[in-house]
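User: I'm putting together a teaching handout on how multi-component assemblies are represented. Below are the sequence lines for each component of a complex, exactly as they appear in our records. Could you produce the 3D structure of the whole assembly as structure tokens, so the students can see both representations side by side? Please keep the chain order the same as the input.
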Amino acid sequence: MLLDRNGGFRPDSWRHLADDEAPADGEAVTISFKRWQAEPERWSDRTRPLGLRLSNDVPPAAFGPAATRFALIVLNFPRFIDGRAYSQARLLRGRFGFKGELRAGGNVLRDQLMFMARCGFDSFEVDAERARAENWPQAFREFEQFYQPAADRRETILRQRLRSWQTAAE
Amino acid sequence: MALYRYDEFDRKFLEERVAQYRDQVRRRLAGQLSEDEFRSLRLMNGLYLQLHAYMLRISIPYGTLSSAQLRGLAHVARRWDKGYGHFTTRQNIQYHWIRLEDTPDILAHLATVQLHGIQTSGNSFRNITTDPFAGAAADEIEDPRPYGEIVRQWSALHPEFSFLPRKFKIVLNAAPDDRAAVKIHDLGLNLRRNEKGELGFEVLVGGGLGRTPILAQTVRDFVPRRDVLAYITACLRVYNQYGRRDNLFKSRVKILVQSLGIEKYRQEVEAEYAAMGVEREELDLPDAVVAAMQAQFAAPSYPDASGDEAELNQALAAEPDFARWVKYNVKPHKAAGHAIVVVSLKQPGKVTGDCSASQMELLAELADRLSFGEIRITHDQNMVLPHVRKAALYDLWLQLGAAGLATPNIGLASDIICCPGMDYCSLATARSIPIAQALATNLAQREQEIGPLQIKISGCINACGHHHVGHIGILGLEKNGAESYQITVGGSDNAQAALGGIVGPAVAAHEVTATVDRLIDVYLRLRRDGEQFPDTYRRVGLAPFKEALVVAR
Amino acid sequence: MGDPVFRLVTGNRLRDGKVIYFVGAGVWTPLIAEARLVEEWDGAALLAEAQAGPPPHPAIAPTLIEATRDGERVVPVTLRDRIRAGGPTIAYAGG
Ligand code: SF4
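Assistant: Of course. Below is the structure of the complete assembly, with chains in the same order as your input.
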């Protein structure tokens, strides 16, 4: 099940192809980075919505420039303490202009959701039963303001202060 | 008083953080979170599990406290602990007897005085440290604390860097005389001016002690002040992507820098920095923000105290014990007629860095009366009253003395840095406190003759007691079920930072005092005029120290 | 040597972190003298029994340790476990 940044649950409508599986016509599928690298032409015909699954050790330079051709990118958290995908997400959004759906897979826990959402993730692969029982959607609303600029483009506390000083000075 | 005051944003943020944590504790106690899942959450709020209880570490940003904050800390000690706290080498305080159930209330109480445990553990930014004399020292370029507060805010619950390969310690320094041990931190910021007179930072990366002690190296000589957050972001992003996660002991940024080489690491950082684009603007630190922050830390308006000297001189002449205390514990202040007073938490026989609730309350009161309400914590585990009028020194000395806080030993042999060791810490391989007590008691009689000497003790390889950079360093180990201690000499943590050399096989607990005596004797025999221990060591090398121990065996 | 070495299970209590010892049948005690001592070969079974139960488990990280008997007293073999049982070996500040 997927949890959305806005707090809703929905089923996953994508099929995640193993490297030796063939897609049906027009079907929305994700492929591994390895598969895409091996045969980029085969997947560039744009006859289907295409998604990419990236492991967290792929350097940004390798996937960044091609990011915009995908409708979905799935980043992976093999263990919740392994935070490499936060930087990947930040770069996909901030540097490589990726506007599609950014999804977090792997070991996604409630108390990491807020960080992930701020780095630009839209959706999260979760155990829906546990997520409902523990009210995971609340995790997105625990803080109103933040100190750092991030992919969510919320105005930082620093900028808000600066604005209020400037108005005060006028 | 001129310390940072939280505004509505800061207050709200901290309240939300406490509420979030309260819910995490609730979920843990209800069985919704496993210990594994909860551990990383509690650590992000500074809660450890030690040998006898939970330990709660509270951040003291850039080592500065207001009197109200110190009273808050005293209250926690009294109400929720056993009446004392322990100041650490990270300018933090930790409480050793905490109940999990109480922690949300403790943090809620501390939030009312602008204190928190955010990121005092875990694999993220740790408390930002600096010169304990900041804002009072005569030799600093500028008070570094406004930058400390800016970095503190920027690093709090950072969306991208809260799950780094390992902890990350940032240190700030603004004085030529490094009192902040810059080179043993993951990232150091040295405030400086370029040829044009503009302010900026030298950025050093990759220092740290532990199993593999390494000193930080310069990544860039000068980063303009307004770009500093963007530059640090680049340094961190390279680390977050390439730092090792497969081996706990190789996961600090120092290992990344070592394995890439500083050149390659620099290239990566510079490439990232150059590519940042719009992010650079978002992280821009406008002069207006710095100025507003500086206004919060504005120096107090010191009264004209130029007449104080005469009064002080009289007291000095009349009372040799007072004169001795002034000689070692009182440091020059930038304002005429004022002084920086170091309050020793190293009374021989007591526990290094421990401070009772009543001592904290007394210090808060003295700070209100005599030091514009300000207190500092040093990385040597002492406290500081930073702005004391010279005419008040005598009275202050009497009051501190009555509370066991006027030991005249700052920088001397009994001013020992010491981690909690096996008396409290679950990672320890040996005790460190009893060793410090024995050494301090033994050395107190001749410490004036010895002169400046830094002894540093850690209870395990993690090196919280900074033993590698002690003039004499002691590392507690376990050998065949017994405590044993490895001794190093010649380390130093100032601007000429150096790592000590091992003098021989580890010794048993009861041999440490005699061994240290012998090492000190070698130094006294060989030192030339004006030389401190590390100077002599640099000149004569390790051999004479090793020999003295071989002969003794 | 010569004293027989027993096994017992210890952990820290979830709610307050206090050192506790496993008595059996889901019961834990802060007093090491009340701990259930078993022979070496029964250690694994004791640990398994101590670890069982639905979340939240009352003890964090149940661990098997070694101890000897000295009359009525139970004395852990390692210094670390003796400090856990007896508290810090140094006097500490009080309010
Ligand atoms: S050096 Fe080791 S024993 Fe000492 S406090 Fe650090 S982890 Fe604990």
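A couple of points students might notice: The CA atoms of residues 15 and 53 of chain C lie 16 Å apart. Chain C has one domain: 6-86.
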